[in-house]
Design a protein that fits this description.
The protein is of the alpha/beta class. It has helices at about 45-50, 75-80, 95-105, 115-125, 140-155, 170-185, 195-205, 220-225, 230-235; strands at about 5-15, 15-25, 30-35, 60-65, 65, 80-85, 160, 190-195, 205-210, 215-220.
């Protein structure tokens, strides 16, 4: 079966700075892929290229067998690519429910049955009681949940999560993990950038590690985390043997 997302030779430079250098990776439908890497490794730039926020200098991005390398972000959203942002970006003056409705109208199904679907997503993400509250008044956890809910409102086939667990307490992180597992069980493919490693390990089938814009390692999460290179570069642990 062809992968739902295929990235081939993706490169991006900003002046003399290379932030993505020949990245290639396939993601299978229904898979949960975790992406790790130190700050500045090129993780968010990779997401921006997948989502259509910036164009690659070289390489190809295919989604559901279609070359989307030059498609706009709006077109990719309608095709079924949804994303959250590291810093939540809700419409602060709108209610939580209205935030979802706006996203739903521009998503894959073009707003079909958007109110019912929005209510279901609010229940899934634990925000139903906040449906009529202004988004600007939410707590950090609630804003994180809204960011996830807004991404889901477009009914994505592929969900890109950018450090959505950052800043949460242990208990809050567990609640988020439970919600993401439920989303994945509904058939949504997930690619998740995260520094909270235990969150990734609770969900991901596979890890992909970036360093200086290049692939450092990928594979089974236990094998990747036991890698000496990963421990030295990402975790800052020296002198560990490969496990």
């Amino acid at each position: 079966m062809a992968p739902i997302l295929s990235i081939t030779g993706l490169s991006k430079r900003f002046g003399a700075v290379v932030v993505a250098d020949g990245i290639s990776i396939d993601v299978s439908e229904g898979e949960a892929l975790g992406i790790l890497g130190p700050n500045g490794a090129g993780k968010t730039t990779l997401f921006n290229m997948i989502a259509g926020a910036i164009a690659p200098d070289e390489g190809r991005i295919s989604f559901c067998g279609e070359d989307i390398s030059r498609r706009s972000a709006a077109q990719r959203c309608r095709l079924g690519i949804g994303r959250s942002f590291q810093i939540p970006q809700p419409f602060g003056g709108l209610s939580v429910f209205e935030n979802l409705c706006v996203t739903g109208f521009f998503g894959r199904t073009g707003g079909r049955d958007v109110e019912r679907r929005s209510a279901e997503i609010l229940e899934l993400t634990g925000l139903l009681a906040k449906a009529n509250v202004a988004a600007a008044s939410l707590t950090l956890l609630e804003r994180k949940r809204l960011e996830l809910a807004r991404a889901l409102a477009g009914e994505p086939k592929l969900l890109l999560l950018d450090e959505i667990a950052g800043g949460l307490t242990h208990h809050e992180c567990d609640e988020l993990i439970a919600a993401i597992r439920q989303i994945r069980s509904a058939g949504v493919t997930i690619v998740w950038i995260e520094h909270v490693v235990r969150a990734l390990l609770a969900v991901a089938d596979r890890l992909f590690v970036l360093h200086q814009g290049r692939e450092l390692a990928q594979g089974d999460p236990r094998d990747v985390m036991a890698s000496r290179q990963v421990q030295e570069i990402y975790l800052g642990v020296e002198g560990q043997a490969d496990g």
